[in-house]
Amino acid sequence: MHFEISVYDEMGMICKAKHTRYIVLQHGFEKEVAKRIEQLERVI
Question: N or C: which end of the chain has fewer CB within 10 A?
């Protein structure tokens, strides 16, 4: 799955740049990433 928002991994590193698509589920943090995305979508 590809996301077009910035997502941070467990070390606080940016997995995704604003205008670049990254696969953010490569480390198996599906649930954590989903929570982060929900929080970011609320802000947006």
Answer: C
